[in-house]
Amino acid sequence: MIKTVHVTNHWHAFSGGVRAWYRSVLDAANAEGRPVRLIVPGPRSWTEEVGAFGRIHHVRAAARAPGDGRYRLLLPHRYILPRGPIRRILEDERPDLIEICDKLTLNWLAGFIRRRWLGPVGRPVLVGLTCERLDDTIGAYLTSWEGARRLAAAYCRWCYVPLFDAHLAVSEYVACELRTAMHPRHRRPITVASPGVDFSRFTPDRRSRSLRESYLRHGGGRDEDVLMLYAGRLSPEKNVGLLLKVVDRLNSPGSPRAYRLLLAGSGPLAGRLRDEAAARPAGQIRLLGHVESPVELAVLYANCDVFLHPNPREPFGIAPLEAMASGCPVVVPAAGGVLSYANPANAWLADPSPDGFARAVETVVADPETRRGRVILARETALRNGQIEAASRVFRLYDSFHRTFAREQATPAVQAAQRPAPG
């Protein structure tokens, strides 16, 4: 079994998709007996053993990510300096393959290794894992200027794609940015490898009439009210502000029923959303904060009437897939990485506007027969995208990359040995 090391900045105590994915990789590693190591930032340095085959190296990182200070950043000096902690970990672990999930500060580590500037680390296979589009990140946090997209493409072309031997992307939507940016001189294989859902945890079996009633009663609601849910980061790139306008549109004068929204998650927009919720009728919008227990989150999914995911530029979106596994009707934009699994047969695809989302929600509520059919197909979709199966598939990709790289490295030596001696 080859040993893999995975390095990422997309990690903190309450982080979502990337952290959940790597946790599932560790679970699968222990099931298959594969040595897997993670290097992640944190407030202090320590090592966490995960079963017999998994290990997480938490490396102290003082720098905070702009826009969301909960994320800490492992900067280049942590691996460039001779006694840098990342460098020391790699020297000790001696992996066969290194996967890096970061485009701004950790990607240069791959460049250093390609140049063999890290000495004892050697030259393992280098894989880039892409979990977001750089142009969308710039658009959400810096500027929507069209020239910024060209700059993002140039950065990917010269400062990201060439540094790796192969690339994995969580969806075709994400992979498209790399393929478009790739220079012919730096051809690299790009494979879509989507994460999966734990359908044993997220299941309709958790549905309970009494629990749903308790969620409604908390804000003075009634059984006939529609209970909507959003679960995810409360941050600019998630387009969460759209949900407030959708709630206003659904609860406009003359509406035959009341619509209530639960927001499960935390992030830099939490304060503003809390103020917005306080300015509306009691219980119409309720912030639950970060839901730490996966079981509690699964119960939420199963006992809400509609799940809303407003981000039209979602890289993949594990939350809608979890909701589908839980038997909750899902409304998503007709764009982005959610289309990897969501379609008109198992979800409600909507224009990402207040009217578009409101009409989709009203359709979910008004047509029980269609709702039942799509929910059944949604659950079947989730069953085909299991978490352990997804991790196992990516292990096969790692093995394939390693075999290919070993052949390519051996070819020059074989050719030299077969070359006739001069004279």
Model description:
The protein is an alpha/beta fold and 423 residues long. It folds into two domains: 4-196 and 387-418, 3-Layer(aba) Sandwich (Rossmann fold), CATH 3.40.50.2000; 204-383, 3-Layer(aba) Sandwich (Rossmann fold), CATH 3.40.50.2000. It contains 15 helices and 14 strands. It has helices at 17-32, 77-80, 85-93, 107-114, 134-141, 146-160, 172-181, 209-217, 241-250, 270-278, 294-302, 318-325, 354-366, 368-383, 387-418, and strands at 4-8, 36-42, 46-50, 54-60, 97-101, 125-130, 166-169, 190-192, 226-231, 259-264, 285-289, 306-308, 330-333, 348-350. The protein has an eight-stranded mixed beta sheet. It has a six-stranded parallel beta sheet with strand order 11-10-9-12-13-14, with helices on both faces. α10 (270-278) links the parallel β10 and β11. α1 crosses α15 and α6 (146-160) packs across α7 (172-181). The longest helix has 32 residues, at 387-418. The chain is elongated, with a radius of gyration of 23 Å. The two termini are 44 Å apart.
